[in-house]
Design goal:
CATH architecture of the largest domain: 3-Layer(aba) Sandwich
CATH class of the largest domain: Alpha Beta
Strand order of the largest sheet: 13-12-9-14-17-18-19-20
Number of domains: 2
CATH topology of the largest domain: Rossmann fold
Helix content: 25-40%
Distance between the termini: 21 Å
Strand content: 25-35%
Number of strands: 20
Structural class: alpha/beta
Length: 387
Amino acid sequence: MNPLAGKSILLGITGGIAAYKVPELIRTLKRKDARVKVVMTENAKRFVSPLVISTLSDGLIPSLWEGSITHISLAEEASLLCIVPADYNIIGKAASGIADDLLSTVISAFDGEILFFPSMNYRMYNNPILQKNIDLLRDSGGTVIEPDTGELAYEGTGKGRLPAASRIVLEIEKALTPDLLKGSYCLITGGGTHEKIDPVRYITNRSSGRMAYSLAKCCYMANGKPELIMGITSSKDDENLPYNLIRVENAREMQEEILKRWDRVDYLFMSAAVSDFTCTSSAKKIKKKEKSDLKLKKNLDILLNLKNKKKEQFVVGFALESDNLLSYAKKKMKEKEVDLMVANDISSIGSDFTSGFLIFPGGEEPFKCRKDELSWKILKRISSKKS
């Protein structure tokens, strides 16, 4: 799913050193098949060349008094209006209803969603007048994205740094994505659990964690509130996503973290590769021998032991098999009383691609796709069942 494909993004650039990052943002949006038109304030032109912006974009609108395109036509044709960076001045104008140049006039005429990305010195950002203006924008339906804390152009570090282009694109994609989850709390497990044999050895299941990270991104874009409980992974988490990440080592720790949150869960995605076996562990490293007996016992089943499920809670289980995939997955679905079972072929381990079946009451749907596409299939399926 590419929410940017074919969409028209109107980008407003204001004065501030962070304006130099906007060309990279435009290139990223264009790579995702968005159309980008740009309005610059006069101060913005001091920080980034209009020639660069006009070359990279689908058009730089000169000013309120030049050209045939009006502020009304700009507002009508755009899918989304984004102010990047949003300086102290434009936030104050927008909050106060001042329209004295092309950008502020477009803001006044735009009846769709407006995203503001503030960027300025931390002293200016912490100014109580600016904070009141931000509250006014939010109360009026605008979306104001919190700036990053980091190195600033002047006076070291503080809150006021423009987020990376990848984070800005994520917020734009979220604004253009259907509100499938309506603010629901989404708890996602992923990665493999480690069950200790001794201080240096363990039993585990292979898992990259990619499915969990993909689900988290899609849940966030669909206006869910994702939180991740992750075991050991070979994939890195997405630094752009504003979610809470809890690291655990073994199945018991994962179960404890789930139970702490279980009462407020709307959706549980149990994509973790929980180790099937455990054993009695040694406090000291076991010495290498010609032969050594390792007695395995069945590990706890987290889904099977979840109690007091509320009617409105929705649980997505995952099954991985090397043969008889559909029949084994259906059996697990019934035993564990999950609402949707994702049956994956064993070849999906460590890959961006996966194949298998979505199993739901009354039927199943085969899939063969990338894991991010599968995440969207899952979200569409569960949102249709709960709507």
